[in-house]
Amino acid sequence: MNADEIRAARHQLGLSQVALADALGLSPLNGRRAISRWEDGTVPVSGPAALAIRYMLKYGPLDSL
Length: 65
Fold this sequence. Notes:
This protein has 65 residues and is an all-alpha fold. Helices cover 68% and strands 0% of the residues. It has helices spanning 3-13, 17-23, 28-40, 47-59. It is globular. The termini are far apart.
């Protein structure tokens, strides 16, 4: 996933950067930083994170796991 796809996915899911970090099991502070870097394209999204985001787009946020 590229930066635009990550941002669009987060908006489609209706999640803030902190909420997406939480849904991915990332710490609030470091997770928000990671997502911010993914969205501005400075750091590539890891394969597992991209897979989890695609899963959430299809089935909803992972908060119930």
